[in-house]
């Protein structure tokens, strides 16, 4: 299911975002996330690798399916009852291997030139890919400390912007699509309207319906 989910999202992005950017760094995150959720958040109560299903994953993500509206709604994030971590480790090597052997082949997005195979491939998008690539890699190569990284990025952008920036080629300020991909972006729960947190339903200083301390503790609180 996560493989199908990735394929659908990748296809949507390639068709609708002409300035889609896909360098090795965001590629790793975007691909591996799809196998990371079911593998890492699976309920280790059953079997060594755990069982990944709605009951074990959705509460951790803070989502709940409403059968009446047939939509997901926001709920406080929490670990499900009787949930335990996996009995076997799920490290970076395994996560990368699974991501690029089981998820990524479902819909190949060409690194550096994700517009290949779509009508969006043009000289403009190709040069903008180069611009975005240099923009993202420069801090890693030239930066040492935070201050040096900031200086290197500022210098690189000052040189690149007049040539490849939006003033010359129409490259976006960021890799977010200039298209309105979310028709209901302002709807509650959408990217421009975070879900409300009703104060009358939850108490304390967090959304887990627990009051740990009324005031900052100054000593031991346990009686035994």
* Count of discrete alpha- or pi-helical segments spanning 4 or more residues: 7
Biggest sheet features: 2 strands, antiparallel
What characteristic shape results from the CA principal axes? globular
Query: What's the helix-strand series?
Result: HHHEEHHHH
Helix content: 40-55%
Mean pLDDT: 74
Strand content: under 5%
What is the CA–CA distance across the termini?
Answer: 49 Å
Work out the oligomeric state of the chains in this entry: single chain
Q: Major sheet: order of its strands?
A: 1-2
Flag low-confidence runs: 175-181, 206-210
Count all strands and give the number. 2
Give me the secondary-structure category. Answer: mainly alpha
Which characteristics define this entry?
two-stranded antiparallel sheet, 224 residues, 42% helix, mainly alpha
Write a brief structural summary.
The chain has 224 residues and is mainly alpha-helical.
Explain what this protein looks like in three dimensions.
This protein has 224 residues and is mainly alpha-helical. The chain has a domain at 2-120. 42% of the residues lie in helices and 4% in strands. The chain contains seven helices and two strands. Strands 1-2 form a two-stranded antiparallel ribbon. Helix 2 crosses helix 4 (92-103). The longest helix is centred in the middle third of the chain and has 20 residues, at 123-142. It is globular and about 60 Å long. The N and C termini lie far apart (49 Å). The model is unreliable at 175-181 and 206-210 (pLDDT under 50).
């Amino acid at each position: 299911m996560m493989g199908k989910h990735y394929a659908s999202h990748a296809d949507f992005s390639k068709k609708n975002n002409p300035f889609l950017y896909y360098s090795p760094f965001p590629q790793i995150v975007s691909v591996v996330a799809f196998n990371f959720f079911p593998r890492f958040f699976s309920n280790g109560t059953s079997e060594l690798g755990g069982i990944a299903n709605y009951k074990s994953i959705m509460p951790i993500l803070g989502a709940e399916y409403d059968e009446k509206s047939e939509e997901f709604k926001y709920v406080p994030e929490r670990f499900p009852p009787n949930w335990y971590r996996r009995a076997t480790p799920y490290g970076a090597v395994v996560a990368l291997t699974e991501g690029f052997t089981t998820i990524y082949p479902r819909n190949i997005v060409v690194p550096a030139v994700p517009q290949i195979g779509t009508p969006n491939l043009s000289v403009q998008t190709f040069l903008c890919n180069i611009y975005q690539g240099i923009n993202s890699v420069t801090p890693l190569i030239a930066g040492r400390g935070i201050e040096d990284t900031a200086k290197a990025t500022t210098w690189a952008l000052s040189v690149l912007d007049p040539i490849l920036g939006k003033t010359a080629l129409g490259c976006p300020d960021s890799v977010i699509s200039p298209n309105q991909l979310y028709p209901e972006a302002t709807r509650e729960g959408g990217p421009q309207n975070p879900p409300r947190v009703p104060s009358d339903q939850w108490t304390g200083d967090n959304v887990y319906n627990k009051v740990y301390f009324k005031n900052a503790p100054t000593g031991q609180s346990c009686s035994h």
